[in-house]
Amino acid sequence: MKAIIQRVSKASVTVDDEIISSIDHGLLILLGIGNEDSFTDIEWLAKKILNLRIFNDSNNIMNTSVMDSDGAIIVVSQFTLMASTKKGNRPSYIKAAKPEIAIPLYEQFIAHLEKEFDKKVGTGIFGADMKIELLNDGPVTILLDSLNKE
């Protein structure tokens, strides 16, 4: 499971000209789900995201988490994070989980995140043509990969 975490001043997800999720201050998470991913990946990723100290404290130092800073979260499924560009110029998405595997894991990730975060999490619509708007704060952008826990 891969996630791009972006600290945002605001973000929104629009489908068919309708805003379906929007937040101020918080995190926009782009989530890629692979063929080998499981609930273990969900647990690790959710814990890591919720505890990342990437928000400024009172001394203007990145020292607080989204939980500590009273932020909000939007999670958007993005299979293109699983792209392989090793061969040629056309990305291969063979490592991306098919919808019958990815949708339940996406829904489990959101449910687990909401349980641990104790707040509702905004989402996109799996498989929809989404328009994502964000004002990246910092900018702060972090890549996490549950198969490469560095």
How would you describe this structure to a colleague?
By secondary structure, the chain is of the alpha/beta class. It is built from two helices and seven strands, in the order E-E-H-E-E-E-H-E-E. The strands form two sheets. It has a five-stranded mixed sheet, with no helix packed on it. The protein is globular and about 45 Å long. The relative contact order is 0.30.
Question: What characteristics describe this protein?
Answer:
single chain, 150 residues, alpha/beta, D-tyrosyl-trna(Tyr) Deacylase, Chain: A, 5-stranded mixed β-sheet, two-stranded antiparallel sheet, 2 helices
List the helices and strands and how they pair.
Blueprint: E1 2-15, E2 18-32, H1 39-51, E3 55-56, E4 62-64, E5 72-77, H2 99-117, E6 122-123, E7 130-145
Parallel strand pairs: 2-5, 5-6
Antiparallel strand pairs: 1-2, 1-7, 3-4
Helix pairs in contact: 1-2
CATH topology name, in short, is D-tyrosyl-trna(Tyr) Deacylase, Chain: A
Distance between the first and last residues' Cα: 13 Å
Outline type: globular
Number of strands: 7
Query: How are the strands ordered across the major sheet?
Result: 6-5-2-1-7
Helix content range of the residues, please?
Answer: 10-25%
Low-confidence stretches: none
> What is the CATH architecture annotation?
3-Layer(bba) Sandwich
**So what's the CATH class?**
Alpha Beta
> How many independent structural domains?
1
The number of distinct helices, counting runs of at least 4 residues, comes to: 2
pLDDT averaged residue by residue: 96
Largest sheet: 5 strands, mixed
What is the H level of CATH, i.e. the homologous superfamily?
D-tyrosyl-tRNA(Tyr) deacylase
Order of helices and strands: EEHEEEHEE
Radius of gyration equals 15 Å
Backbone structural class: alpha/beta
